[in-house]
Write a structure and sequence with these properties.
Largest sheet: 8 strands, mixed
CATH topology: Deoxyribonuclease I, Chain A
Strand content: 25-35%
Distance between the termini: 75 Å
Number of domains: 1
Helix content: 10-25%
Number of helices: 6
Length: 270
């Protein structure tokens, strides 16, 4: 039997080929920025941080159901998100009751939408900015970012970073270290506690680097956060913790190729 490609099939293949090779359209350092206020509910005795890469914001409804059904995620005070677009972050924040800020890094041709990081809090966002990370990807020229937010949660002031480093196929290890250094430099002057969390596309190199910079690796025991890899983590500096508790949500309701990782800043001591 002879197979004949129809015009529709040829057009679909052309779009797929273009999206696999097309460069990203990076946004400038200062924008755009999106924010909203939907906070409701109080804070519990713990201060819980969650990081979740939502894979191009494709399954926001599943993510909303996941946060509503999983007991570990329901208690999150701070949620950092990666691979998001603005409508996806707003839908999550409104449905779950958070204030949020979001910055896109770029328009990503593969996802066909904006691609960036967000921070959601059950508290106040006092100020925020975008941190451009060095070394764009080899294939698309995509420039990754971190989103920094100064927040007040349960009476505690924190600087929170939502980080998404480049993949191992697109940069060298020394370039990954310099991406982390850009975040550390941005946080260097801070007297308040600092949380750095997100998708690092790495484990040991980044974990050691942040520990050497004075951070506690709260999610060190996390495994298989994306396929066989443990690339999603939470680090904190400037807090003395009487206990460290963290975990990986194993059933993510197919909301993403990643699994959410949570960590408690429980028993925070002055």
């Amino acid at each position: 039997m002879r197979l004949v490609a129809t015009p529709t099939a040829l057009a679909a293949m052309a779009v797929l080929a273009w999206s696999s090779l097309a460069p990203a359209r990076n946004y400038p350092a200062l924008g755009p920025r999106y924010a909203g206020r939907f906070r409701r509910g109080g804070n519990g005795p713990r201060l819980r941080v969650v990081t979740f890469n939502l894979q191009f914001s494709r399954e926001v409804d599943r993510a909303i159901a996941l946060f509503g059904s999983d007991p570990e995620l329901r208690e999150a005070d701070v949620v950092v998100l990666q691979e998001m677009d603005a409508p996806g972050v707003e839908r999550l924040a409104q449905a779950l009751g958070y204030d949020y800020v979001y910055y896109p890094a770029a328009f990503h041709p593969r996802g066909g939408k904006d691609f960036g990081n967000g921070v959601m809090v059950r508290g106040r966002i006092l100020s925020d900015h975008k941190v451009l990370l060095p070394h764009p990807s080899r294939s698309r020229g995509l420039q990754r970012i971190a989103v920094a937010a100064d927040v007040e949660v349960a009476g505690r002031a924190l600087r929170v970073y939502s980080v998404h480093l480049e993949t191992p196929a697109e940069i060298w290890p020394w370039q990954r270290r310099q991406q982390v250094e850009a975040v550390l430099a941005d946080a260097d002057h801070l007297a308040t506690p600092v949380v750095v969390a997100g998708d690092f596309n790495d484990r040991d190199l980044v974990g050691t680097q942040l520990q050497d910079a004075g951070f506690q690796w709260l999610s060190r025991a996390a495994r298989r956060t994306v396929g066989p890899f443990a690339w999603d983590h939470v680090f904190v500096r400037g807090m003395r913790l009487s206990s460290e508790t963290s975990g990986v949500v194993r059933d993510n309701l197919r909301a993403s190729d990643h699994r959410p990782v949570w960590a408690d800043l429980a028993g925070v001591q002055a």
